[in-house]
Design brief:
The structure is a homodimer. With about 425 residues, chain A is α+β, with helices and mostly antiparallel strands. Chain A has 14 helices and 18 strands. In chain A, the strands form 3 sheets. In chain A, strands 1, 5, 6, 7, 8, 9, 10, 11 and 12 form a 9-stranded mixed β-sheet that branches. A 6-stranded mixed β-sheet of chain A has the order 14-13-15-16-17-18, sandwiched between helices. In chain A, a hairpin with a 5-residue loop joins β3 and β4. The N and C termini of chain A lie far apart (about 60 Å). At the A-B interface, α1, β1, β2, α2 and β3 of A face α1, β1, β2, α2 and β3 of B.
Chain lengths: ~425, ~425
């Protein structure tokens, strides 16, 4: 008998987990380098939190249920509502602007299709309390930094920046104020790259000519021009491109929006975000400007694998003790312990095995060194140290002080 | 209007998240030092997986529900069933013994009481495919290493080691074979420290005299003696103590069991685990011996706070740029970018502020250095570098190469 996991949920065996943790560590380190502090919220929240933000229609896509206490709850589909709740509740305890990041696992209930996931991890970074475009520039610089930290270059990706407010102003000038019509217009723009021009023209109706003309002329807005000047100062000129076709599906953005794409067009969007100056007030009652983005682990993981940038194993300088004589096991255990105390990465065979088998185990497990504990260790404190890739072998004398190995000094040097 | 989170779920604001991540990083680093590889599974699993392992009674404590596809599912209350499923399914792809670790968030649905959590994180380490007591010794050494990595000493904690098989043999010798009676006996032992001797004697019935006598004499088993010899070789003699009163509540342990406690007795158990040689067969059909433990983030977090060992903030050498003249903002942004490229941790004011305010912000945000970008930077490439704690100031010249700051060389040295 054997159990299956639920469809749409991933098992992370060590190889997949190594890639995941590599991505997480670049996200974390980039965030910290940019002065962001880590936070997290509950993976389960009251359903109401998401309805309030996105309307009742959202419920169809949520992993929601009624719990044993008759509460309507949902596994979080995104972190922004939780962030808005938390930041709104305690923002007075922190200096503005807040710069916070998190890497939550998120959930959605969609019809299970082949390869379609119901969970993913997402890097979230947000700045709260800064209304100027300097916040946008800082966010874009952070994304660019992380992308390169993952080993990608600006020839691989582009950050497409747009201005949703530009279109809202455009609609107002054209007397389109009905909420449903505004929504339909933004939807038509959002899908413009996947639809034929005829389809889009039909959706845009009388505004079609103007829209296509604005896009062809490469129109920008004052906001976009100001932002691009900061981007240039931050060295981002060739990473960022103005593209007014980007509007982002979600309804709550209020100004600059952006998406990160691979330039080949082979993959879905890598990341997306923008300014949402009204959401904190809606969720927490606190009127604070905010901007942020999310980057999922799935698309970026596919891209790293595609480009051969996924780490095979954790690249650690680790040692495997080869116990040349089983009678020396107690000494080998003591040495393993002292090495670990000294910060070394150490493994050893848990049961007696032939020396050849032990060297083989050392290689198969991806260790860099084999450290041989034999008679010379018992008599003189000397071990053979073999670099497994090159087969080079030298003798070393572990220097033990206070139960810690402080160095593996080559003998005779 | 404002939203509440669900009762029993924690918000991790930056201070709490810093403690959590500190604990996680010691857990991760200790695991890797001992040759364990990270894995993870889904936070949601079929309810059946837990029923199979623990019987139908477990359901009352689970955060389980029926999902939109009419599946009975549960938020994972522990990782071991998932681990058994995963290890069983693919163990042939890996060399034995498997040494795997994970830090899952776990859930249970208990009556919400003040301070009673419905989620926690738990460090899980397991070894599969090694039947000898060397696996137990390795697991105990890992726990001891991590505890000291967190800043605790062996005067703070003790690992109490017991042998459930000793008691199962004892019961067999005394002709107690009825499953319910075996269970009641183990329960009585498990609660011995919190119950009066009279209560325990009543529960143990005719076996009471023998049990108290065995405990008083400090009886051990052959398994325990062998294990203690390995522990001694690993330098664990004063961290580990034989204590046959430990049996662990869960029904699936088959041999050695252990718990970690603070010696003061002020806190609940810090960690617990043991050998479970039958579970993989039950869950996956693969007959493999296994041993493992779990350590939660809540009790250890309380202990670290109690002993003043919780980190206040991430102790990073970070720089805050002070923009002495707003006209120099573009140069300051370029310098921030080049510093970050060079691996420095850098923040700066997003909007114009008086110099005094900027120094204040640098201190309030916990930066180590303020780096002043003023006229001397524009004319000669020289910045003032102030160590905020000591108020020492020197002049430095950022060495920029290929858009990266390679060093902040003191001027005139």
């Amino acid at each position: 008998m054997s159990f299956q996991s639920l469809s749409g949920f991933r098992d992370f065996y060590p190889e997949e987990c190594a890639l995941r943790e590599h991505i997480f560590s670049v996200w974390c380190e980039s965030s910290r380098q940019f002065g962001f502090s880590q936070y997290d919220g509950p993976p389960l929240e009251p359903l109401e939190l998401y309805k309030k933000k996105s309307g009742d229609e959202i419920v169809g896509q949520l992993y929601n249920f009624v719990d044993k206490g008759e509460r309507e709850v949902a596994l979080r589909p995104e972190l922004t509502p939780t962030f808005a709740r938390m930041a709104g509740a305690k923002h007075r305890d922190y200096k503005k602007p807040l710069k916070w990041f998190a890497i939550p696992q998120l959930f959605r209930y969609e019809r299970a299709q082949r390869g379609r996931l119901r969970e993913h991890f997402q890097w979230n970074c947000d700045i709260v309390g800064e209304a100027s475009l300097a916040a946008e520039a800082e966010i874009l610089a952070l994304i660019d930094h992380a992308m390169r930290g993952l080993g990608l270059t600006r020839e691989d990706y582009v950050i497409r920046v747009s201005d949703r407010q530009f279109w809202l102003d455009f609609l107002q000038q054209n007397k389109v104020t009905d909420e449903a019509k505004v929504y339909d217009f933004l939807q038509a723009l959002d899908k413009i790259e996947r639809a034929s021009e005829a389809e889009t023209r039909e959706k845009l109706g009388p505004l079609a000519d103007q829209v296509f003309s604005l896009l062809e002329k490469g129109t920008t807005s004052e906001r976009l021009d100001t932002l691009m000047a900061s981007c240039k100062a931050l060295g981002l000129a060739d990473a960022v491109k103005i593209d007014l076709r980007i509007v982002r599906g979600l309804a709550y953005y209020t100004g600059i929006v952006f998406e990160v794409h691979d330039r080949s067009g082979k993959f879905r969007a890598i990341a997306g975000g923008g300014r949402y100056d009204n959401l904190l007030k809606l969720i927490s009652g606190e009127d604070l400007p905010a901007i942020g983005f999310g980057m999922g682990d799935v698309v970026i993981g596919e891209i790293l694998k595609d480009k051969g940038l996924a780490p095979k194993t954790a690249n650690i300088e680790s040692y495997y003790l080869v116990i040349a004589d089983e009678a020396l096991r107690p000494q080998a255990l003591a040495l393993a312990s002292a090495l670990r105390e000294g910060g070394y990465h150490v493994d050893y065979p848990l049961t007696a095995a032939k020396v050849g088998k032990q060297f083989q185990a050392a290689e198969e497990r991806g260790h860099k060194f084999a450290l041989v504990v034999g008679q010379e260790y018992a008599s003189d404190g000397v071990c053979g140290l073999k670099t497994l890739a090159t087969r080079e072998q030298v003798n070393v004398r572990p220097e033990v002080r206070d139960g810690k190995v402080s160095s593996l000094a080559p003998v005779g040097c």
